[in-house]
Design a protein that fits this description.
By secondary structure, the chain is mainly α. Helices cover 57% and strands 4% of the residues. It has 11 helices and 6 strands. It has a 4-stranded mixed sheet. Strand 2 and strand 3 form a beta hairpin. The radius of gyration is 18 Å and the shape is globular. The two termini are 32 Å apart.
Length: 329
């Protein structure tokens, strides 16, 4: 089944996947899976989440997820910003992008991605953090507190290690403390009022950190498109990982995906003026494609049967990438 999905994604989106930042379709599933396995991801029982990696932090909350290592999110999602991936971002007027990128990052052998050198990768990581927090907020406010608690910890334990050098280089180190405080408080949350203060501090800190990526390239249509695609690519991988035999068995991964596509939509909407100015038709096509993709996540709690078959979700992601192609090269 895995090979069939890879062939589907390859067949639909190969032209765009090969042209934009050297993404290779075979990474999409294998590297996500390999990275998650090598990081020691495993389900435990009640009694809280243990997140391994440096420092061996232990964060409370039910769910028993074990996320090991830095960069728990699959590095493949950030491959749009991998070596050479930001070179030659066009746009009107022939604006050149940044050259090849090096630095740390990347998981499971994927190309290196640097949150220091790449404003785009840095912003994509921060937006992914916001997607986690969007999932937490929706669940906790809806009374699904046990499901929401783990998502409060994920920005700190899964993504902070990758983005921390970028925060430091942009004088945004305060966000690190805000995310850690949010994660540490997660296990004691019984209602939204228990976490509102820490959540708002982290949310404002994230927005401030995003604004710190102030280069012209960071605001280009090409970089905005790659941020959106990084989020939706990870969302599709999470959706796939959540399923087994046609049923959702990893609810938190489904919820991660919903948060990521929500963050992608918000980010796309917030930059509509830039994209419309460059290519109004492509903007409309991208919005339509993203709306179709979002149908896979009809609610915060997954349905008993997938609303959209996983093969169709991969296809919807490929259509979004094709819609955004005019902004990528």
């Amino acid at each position: 089944m895995k090979n069939e999905k890879l062939k589907l994604w390859t067949g639909i989106g190969m032209a765009t996947l090969m042209a934009s930042s050297g993404v290779i379709a075979s990474e999409h599933k294998d590297k996500h899976h390999d990275g998650m396995m090598s990081s020691g991801s495993a389900e435990g029982g009640e009694g809280g989440e243990y997140h391994g990696g440096e420092g061996g932090e232990h964060h409370g909350g039910e769910g028993g997820e074990n996320h090991g290592g830095e960069g728990g999110e699959a590095g493949a999602a950030f491959s749009y910003f991998a070596a050479g991936g930001e070179g030659g971002e066009g746009g009107e007027g022939g604006e050149g992008g940044e050259g090849g990128e090096g630095g740390e990052g990347g998981e499971g052998g994927s190309a290196a991605v640097s949150a220091v050198d790449s404003d785009g990768a840095y912003v994509a990581m921060l937006q992914m953090m916001q997607g986690h927090l969007m999932a937490a907020r929706e669940l906790i406010k809806a009374g699904q507190v046990a499901d929401g608690r783990p998502h409060l910890t994920h920005p700190w334990v899964e993504l902070h290690g990758m983005v921390a050098p970028g925060l430091e280089s942009r004088n945004q180190k305060a966000l690190s403390g805000q995310l850690e405080a949010l994660a540490n408080q997660a296990g004691d949350v019984d209602s939204w009022s228990d976490i509102n203060k820490e959540f708002q501090a982290a949310w404002v800190g994230l927005e401030k950190a995003v604004k710190a990526a102030g280069s012209k390239n960071a605001q280009s249509a090409g970089t905005v498109s790659k941020v959106v695609l990084s989020l939706t690519k990870q969302a599709v991988l999470e959706y796939d990982e959540a399923l087994e035999d046609g049923r959702f068995v990893a609810v938190h991964e489904y919820q991660d995906g919903r948060g990521f596509v929500g963050a992608a939509r918000d980010y796309l909407d917030s930059h509509q003026a830039t994209l419309k100015k460059q290519n109004k038709e492509a903007w409309r096509d991208a919005v339509k494609a993203l709306e179709e993709l979002q149908k896979a996540w009809p609610a915060a709690v997954p349905p008993e049967q997938p609303a959209v078959p996983v093969a169709n979700v991969y296809a919807a992601q490929a259509r979004l990438e094709l819609a955004l192609a005019p902004f990528l090269y």
